[in-house]
Amino acid sequence: MTTESDPSYPAHWEADVVLRDGGTARIRPITPADAGRLVSFYEQVSDESKYYRFFAPYPRLSDRDVHRFTHHDYVDRVGLAATIGGEFIGTVRYDRIGADGRPASGPSDEAEVAFLVQDAHQGRGVASALLEHIGAVARERGIRRFAAEVLPANTKMIKVFRDVGYEQKRSFEDGSVHLTLDLEPTAESLAVQRAREQRAEARSVQRLLAPGSVAVIGVSRSGAGVGAAALRNLRDSGFHGHLYAVNEEVTHDLLDGVRAYRTVDAIGAPVDLAVIAVPADRVPEAVAACGEHGVQGLVVLSAGYGESGPAGLARQRELVKQVRSYGMRLIGPNAFGVINTAPEVELNASLTPAPMPMRGRIGLFTQSGAIGIALLSALLRRGEGLSSFVSAGNRADVSGNDILQYWYDDEATDVALLYLETLGNPRKFTRLARRTAAVKPVVVAKGGRHTPAGHVVPGTRLPDATVSALLRQAGVIRVDTVTELVDVGLLLASQPLPAGPRVAILGNSESLGVLTYDACLAQGLRPLPPIDLTTAAAPEDFRTALAAALASDDCDAVVVTAIPWVSEHALADDLAESLREAVAEVPGKPVAVVHVELGELVEALSAAGAPSPAPPAPAPGSDLPRPGLAGEGHGAEPDRIPGYPAAERAVKALAEAVRYGQWRRGNAEVGHVPEYEDIDEPGAAAQLAGLLADVDGGAVLTLAEWDARELLARYGIHVLPALPAPSPDAAVRAAGILGYPVALKTTAPHLRHRADLGGVRLDLRNEAELRRSYEDLTGLLGKPSELQPVVQTMVPRGVDTVVRSVIDAAAGAVLSFGLAGVASELLGDIAHRLVPATDRDAAGLIRSIRTAPLLFGWRGSDPVDTPALEELLLRLSRLVDDHPEVIGVSLEPVVVATEGLSVLSATVRVAHPPARGDLGPRTLPSY
User: pTM above the 0.90 mark?
Assistant: First the structure.
């Protein structure tokens, strides 16, 4: 009998999923121990749903049915259940069938599939989630097609199959609709899956940020403590919903003026959000009470979890497991809370000191409560408000990915700011960030270089520089400090994006203008000569000069510099008003102000009326861009101008806006993954299957040279053969086969790719030169058995480069490029892109290294064949994307000549792929 503790039980099929309405469910294999749950589930299904499932009245399951539906071999017969609170809400099963439609086993690759969802949970996306997961299981077991029989009246189930995005065939036979689905993922099925993921995860966050009722559990009667502080903030924020306090020892109807109850159940009304502020050992009891009451989400302020060590981390995992078992989402534990300034909500379920942030266009996510306080205070000091704020603490469930899903189509948020300590799933984060950055800026300050205690989701092994490159590829603005996070956010929230890098500088201090000019050059901008208005300049002079600069076709942005007058207070308001008048007169370009000891000016510049409504979205099908590109703002007040106390800070923020604007414009032209007719994907798959046939599941195999050449050749990547030369005579014979001129080089690991150590002899034109070089090489570096010399045909001279692809457990396949040589390695001059790479990615990859000018004719040299190099990158990307068994490829060196290129050496590592990859079904991170 198979149980969850049985070694044959496929535990990796278990997953938590977010449903369409934002609630969660757990999907897992059905076992014989589920007989009672199955019977109870079936009793709650309506007669109509039973009829649709069995095509006849079927009031109850027989003992034989129960046995058949709970006993599976997890290969030819598989059943999955969606559960909430341990009880079934939906089931799906497949049975492998042969060409005659009768039960079969492998190698038959077709199965019959059927669903049943409890009526109370229909419409929540349960069947769609089950179909995704049973499809992934089927592919793992060698099944390529699903067949289903559906009654024509069962329109809901027909829609589930129709909308999944798989290639399918439909026919009408014997009074039923016969459907056949090809389970190979397609671009459409992946798009459908990700769109569902976005809607579900955004909805789950929306339920946390806009609840109709909130209960704070753990409010002390004395008014002291975390719970009481959270209750006061909720009360004082003007929350528009129902508010309750919970304390098991309460003796009065009110606590701090809020209706109080001994238990959640005693409230007698729905509770959407619970804020838990009790000691960690009492949290499970509170969670259970919330789950039984139907609470939709939790904010756990309590500490004593992952941040406290191994025992706390184990407690944290149990907390997530318990929360999800009730279909709830969790912010925390050890959270600082959430804020939503929307006028219809006005929620402050946090420990933020008064006053509550005002309404604004910035969304803010932090993992650290302390950093959250610092960021909120900085924004408040500079007159900026928020749309929403989430401080997730240990980020055990809700993470930055979920918040990005919410902000993507949140009309109240124009700029997304995130402080992150780890990127638990860089591949998903960059995918979500890239989509979000296409419509609104995403600015990230990443703190920890390593995974700190308390974060359930593991950090990536990728170097920090690689993570930065992948974020840039996704259009994310990465900054180094929380100060820069605020600086950049302020500019993006209040100013339009610049159309280019040309910057006009004007002000009443020549020295400050020069500093600003230097800062612009350091950031890669193109500053115009500063305009000195002299220290005698009045506000009207600033207005006139700024209006003229904004009207000029020679600049894309303006930096105004200002130093104090004798009477600062009298002129600050006048100067701010003059600058706003100029911006209003000639709108469309960003303006930043650099001030020295002019605090009153900052306050005057940030002064503005009530926040403006969000800009209207383009009509469906419209070709108009979303707000934010050159000349368009992000929905913030047009008369607000950000001020900075140093030129370097203002220019850094402006430079990030310039680079983001360039990315936005470039991203408007979507790249594509080219198709190459000479690629032999089936042949490569068969070769890999043969090579891995005798390799253990966790082992890594480095391919022999000939196997690597054969595999790469199937994707049009041809590696120049190198013949071994264990002796001078063998070297001469090899040269005779290959033809002169030849190269002689060592392949010993300590000398490989180290031309600087003298292990390479080039352009040997005859036997005498070859023998002399062989003698020199062995005399200098060691015996032939130590050097492992080889002979290779000479190739046209060019630029030596390195092309690699590696697999990171979290980020997936990463394509890397750089020039060969010690200098590039020492300086870390290597660029990266996520796989699959598009033609735009490949072109950007080779141009993003600092030594890229060497490829394009530096100092009069001939430019090399960069189109051939881009094609090589794209072919390698296709190989590792098509075949997850290929976990590492190194092509070094790749000599790129003026026409064509030559791959001189290749190393390929392969292993059995994980059961599921990025194309797998939607799941929440495991605990």
Answer: no
